[in-house]
Description:
- With 339 residues, this protein is an alpha/beta fold.
- The chain folds into three domains: 44 residues, 434 Repressor (Amino-terminal Domain) (Orthogonal Bundle); 131 residues, 3-Layer(aba) Sandwich (Rossmann fold); 139 residues, Response regulator (Rossmann fold), CATH 3.40.50.
- 44% of the residues lie in helices and 17% in strands.
- The strands form two sheets. A six-stranded parallel sheet has the order 2-1-3-4-5-11, with helices on both faces. Strands 7-6-8-9-10-12 form a six-stranded mixed sheet, with helices on both faces.
- Helix 12 links the parallel strand 9 and strand 10.
- Helix 1 packs across helix 3, helix 5 runs parallel beside helix 13 and helix 10 crosses helix 11.
- The chain starts with 5 loop residues before the first helix and ends in a 10-residue tail after the last strand.
Amino acid sequence: MATASIKEVARHAGVSLGTVSNVLNRPNTVAPATRQRVLDAIAELGYVRNDSARQLRAGQSRTVAIVVLDVSNPFFTDVVRGAEQVIEEAGAMLIVCNSGEDSARERRHLELLEEQRVRGVLITPVAHGPQPDLERLHRRGTPVVLVDRGSGQASRCSVAVDDVLGGHLAMTHLLEQGHRHIAYAGGPFSIPQVADRHAGAAAALADHTAAELRVATTTSLTVASGRRAAEELLTLPAAHRPTAVICANDLIALGVLQHLTEQGVRVPDDVAIVGYDDIEFAGAAAVPLSSIRQPREQLGRTAALLLLEEAEAGSAHRHRHVVFQPELVVRRSSERRRG
Ligand code: RIB
């Protein structure tokens, strides 16, 4: 149902358009009886102000958008919570868009956000490399900050974790536990975080000639993909079957744990598992998951602060690339093998 227009409200209340605008924006400048007549008309007609148009006229929107890869991934829930604290403290509002790891969907979101003239965009892009949609936003004066994605680009800020180090930490831990046949489960590798974590794990393995790293590439970073990766690994001949799996994120790790457990494979005695993110469900899993911790809320807060700084400073802003250090959290899923 279309909402009433400001003209219909003015006519219904028997006042001018300017009086209705004053009631909405400067209520103390309107006589109480007149203000109440206008408010009654707004309620009776169901008028809803077009905030984006008003904000546009005022020269700045009070809405910031964050575009996440997968809204069902608790990693992003924590990142959003951190960003939300900062954005709301600044008197603005954060809206969440989900790209679902789909570039076409991401592009549609960015086009709509550009039409809405949002104050800025926080985004974990689906792909790596040049981002023409983000360049266009930036040319229009809309600050864009990359989240959970490193970037050497001079045209925007970024906040990330050293994912190569994260993969290195996971592999070093498993090698120290005595594992020599290790798998990496994750994908698509077009997502830089997935590729970087694998690169770090492979680098840590390089010094161990007697060890091998096998990849079970997934089509998404979900629990279902983790289950499929575990299924694939169990088809390998016993001599090449991994005794440990590094997962690109905790959702993959939960899927691997679920399938192995269903197949009677003992974790960690038969197969150890290390996830990535250290979401709340990692520690709460039936076999508590070891994971590489990302400072999730801090990622969100820092990205939001950088964006507001740029929105206020404009061309005087100097872009920064903040990189946090990951941390290995050891739990039962990768404790030393017995015997
Ligand atoms: O951003 C890509 C992935 O990295 C997400 O799935 C999230 O889990 C993070 O670890």
